Structures are given as structure tokens and as C-alpha cells.
Amino acid sequence: MVSKTKFVIDDNKIKELFSKAGINKITKISPLGAGEYNAVFEVKADKSYVLKIAPEKNMPVLTYENEMMKAEVYWYEQIRNNTDIRVPEVYFSDFSKELLPTDYFIMEKLEGKQRNEAGLNRNVITESTASMLAQIHKVKNDKYGYVQNQLYDNWYDALCSMIHNLLDDAKAVGRRSKRGERLFEYAQKYKSVIEKAECTMVNYDLWDPNVICVTDKDNTEFCWIDPERSFWGDKIFDFICMQNPLFSVKAKKESLKIYNSVTDVPVEENRDTEIRYAFAQGLMGLIMEIEKYYRYTPHHFGWWRNIATGAVMYKCAFRVLKNG
């Protein structure tokens, strides 16, 4: 998809990047994927590779997106070292800014289809996703937040920082988010609920394009890509990407039942869980509201997609939070 943040590069420069990585005899270079932030290319040499290039250093981005490519490599390592979930092998990374005025890395190209194009039964998708989420939620930390920003001692402080940074990002481009300010006020109101959340690995971006299905005969392996928006925080935020994302947590009974059957710490269906999930929706609404100013113009599909989906996220969140 078109985005203002994507780094512009020609084929000769890409060949230079690969040469530094010790990969030569490139036969084909082509844009890859539906991503809306990094520039991504498929590069064919002795085999197929993926090149990801971060936005240029002077390109305005959201606060949590600063140094996000380093975070992506970090999260690939966390998933690979602590779970059975397959992620691409990172062959080479360069954060030196010597050849480009930004970060980039080269990784394995997974040959498969994204989840919504693999022709799989919805129950199979729900079961596999719940099982994989249970795996990453077993990975714990003692600090909360984005590794590329500041980490905090509790989830309340981390969540307030996330919201506050997005409000500041809006101010930086001459905008104001009244709904974001309302969300911040609700966070203060529900401090005692929010700060109870244990600290686990959270993906928060497990939409269909970020799950690649690799099929071998009758077996389908679900592989993850693009975990750079992960953070240490409240695991209930990962249910935003499962079964009925635009409704309350009550609409996720099937997902919760499957998840609870494979996790070591089941999710309880109660008022506190509803509140915490509402903040997952509210934060997503705020991200979608503010990021459109950094990525798109009103001539882009993404601009209007963010407006519509973000508004529904806010509405669902506030319906729950106002009744406390």
C-alpha cells in the first residue's frame, strides 16, 4: 500500500546492500507485501530473500515507531528462542547508517500464503492462533512497554505513556485528539484495574497479512512475520486480533474457550477483563486516528480506512468504560 513513510531506493542500491551481506548474483528485485510503514522487497539470488528498510531518519514517525526496526529483530529473537512458532531467519542487519540513512535487514522469505488467502476453516485459524498466543504469553518480563521507548514498573504507567505519546504525536502535526484525551482520563479512572495486568509478550498486530501459512502435503504451519509492534504488557490486548475485533470481549467466547484450554493462566470472563479489553480497543483507535497524519493523505485508502475503523474501536471501548 502507498505510504509516505516508505523509503525510496533503486535496484543498484539494493544490490549494494546485499553485496555487503555477502549475497551476490541477484536475478530479480520486486516490491513485496501489503505493508504500510517499511519498504519491503523480495530479492532473488541463490534463493529468495526479504529486504526490509525503515523510513528515513528525518521522516516524521510516531513516537513508538522510532527505532522500531531494531525492535523487530529483538522480537524475532524472543519468539524464536522462547516458543515453537516459526519466524523468518534474520540473515543480516545493519543499523550503522553507512550505506543508507536508515536501518535495514535481510531475512528469510517464507513461501506460503497469508492467513486469509490459505482457504482454511475458520475454526482451524482460531485454534492455531489461540494456541500460539498462549505460547508468547508464557514469556514474561519484569518491565512493561515498548522496548524501543521507555519501560515501566507496571502496566498502568506504560499504558498511560503510550496514550500520552500518541497525543503528543498529534500535537506535533498540529492536531488534537479529544477521544484520545478521553481515553487517558478513563485510564486514570481505572488505574486499579489496569495495574493488575501481568507482564507478558504481546503481539497486538496479529492480523491476517502477518500470519503466513506454509503447507506441506496435508500439514499447515502458521508462521509469524512483522512483530515490530509488539510490547511487554497486558495479554488481553492480543485478543483485539481474534474473532470479532470490533465487539466487546464477551463476543470472543469461542476464542477464550480455546485459549484457556491451552494456557497456563486462563483469562477470566469478568468486568475487569472487559475493561482491560476496552483499553485494547481504545488504544488501537487512537493509533489509527493519529497514524493517518503521518502515513497518508485524504487521497489514500488508508486515510479513510483508519477513520472508519478507528471510530468503531473508540465507540466499542467507550461503551464499556463509561459504565464503570
Give a brief description.
This protein is α+β, with helices and mostly antiparallel strands and 324 residues long. Helix content is 40%, strand content 14%. It is built from 9 helices and 10 strands.
Strand content: 5-15%
Q: Describe the global form.
A: globular
Report Rg: 20 Å
Got a strand count? 10
Portion of residues within helices: 40-55%
Explained architecture:
With 324 residues, this protein is an alpha+beta fold. Helices cover 40% and strands 14% of the residues. It is built from 9 helices and 10 strands. Helix 3 (122-136) crosses helix 7, helix 4 (155-172) runs antiparallel to helix 5 and helix 8 runs antiparallel to helix 9.
Write the layout of secondary structure elements.
Elements: H1 11-20, E1 28-31, E2 39-44, E3 48-53, H2 68-82, E4 90-94, E5 104-108, E6 113-114, H3 122-136, H4 155-172, H5 178-189, H6 191-194, E7 200-202, E8 211-216, E9 219-224, E10 231-233, H7 253-262, H8 271-295, H9 301-321
Antiparallel strand pairs: 1-2, 2-3, 3-5, 4-5, 6-8, 7-10, 8-9
Helix pairs in contact: 3-7, 4-5, 4-8, 5-8, 8-9
Question: Which labels suit this protein?
Answer:
324 residues, alpha+beta, five-stranded antiparallel β-sheet, three-stranded antiparallel β-sheet, 9 helices, 10 strands, 40% helix, 14% strand, globular
